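To assess whether ligand presence alters the predicted conformation, the chain was also submitted together with glutamine. Input:
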Amino acid sequence: MDLQQLLDDICAGAASHYGQGRVADYIPALASVAPAQFGIAIHTLEGDLYSSGQAQKRFSIQSISKAFSLTMAIHRHGDELWQRVGKEPSGTAFNSLVQLEFEKGIPRNPFINAGALVVADSLCSRLSAPVHAMLETVRLMAGTASITIDRKVADSEYEHRYRNAAMANLMKSFGNFENEVDRVLRAYFSYCALSMNCVELARAFSFLAADGRCPQSGRQWLTKRQTQQLNALLLTSGLYDAAGDFAYRVGMPGKSGVGGGIMAVVPGRFTVCVWAPELNEYGNSVVGLWALEELSKALDLSLF
Ligand SMILES: NC(=O)CC[C@H](N)C(=O)O
């Protein structure tokens, strides 16, 4: 099948799915994003790029950044990290607090907010400039030096930080937080506020489809085994309490963000990123999910 034609067809069909979700509105900087937008990009291991729609338009990557921060943390801490954060699906919303007290400040997995805060904390312990280090890493992974952090989004997140601050403080009370809460929150929000487009995200995550090695630069970001493990966690928890539905409909490891982006991995073949800002009740892109399901069906991409 002609991949470019398929992406163009999916893009043409996207418009009929607009209006079923709502753009994130917990901060003004995200609430002002126009809802009826769609982009998709595929980056193959051979280095070929296919894209359609607004694949070059940057958006707030939000929780997709949790896959970058986890990569950095696994690289630095290895298996030690798993003493502080679990590997199980949470079954609760990404910003839920309830489990955290029952489970003594150990978040279920690294992709819910509490888990990503622990990951950010672990990076703050090892790095004197954790935000700069993230930016440099993501620029290298994407092969694009112009990637930036949207300060307006990061500052706005910090102004509305109370739920994430509550999680961090609760974990601190259980002894599962090493740094000052504010420092970690600033780093976490900066990661979420990375501004990237579908093409850049598909390229940046290509190491996840290639046993941890960037097919372009040859740089080994993770070992093959660590890459398999990260993909397993993305499959089971990357879409929070909708990870089961994603595995059922799409059948790939994936990570979503409330900016409307979703990246997904077809190990051994390619990475794909879709963007459409309207979200469902789980905080995942409605049209993005539809598009990935169409892609998966058309190319028989489910790992199962
Ligand atoms: N799911 C997401 O993308 C959530 C990220 C958001 N910045 C938050 O911390 O709530």
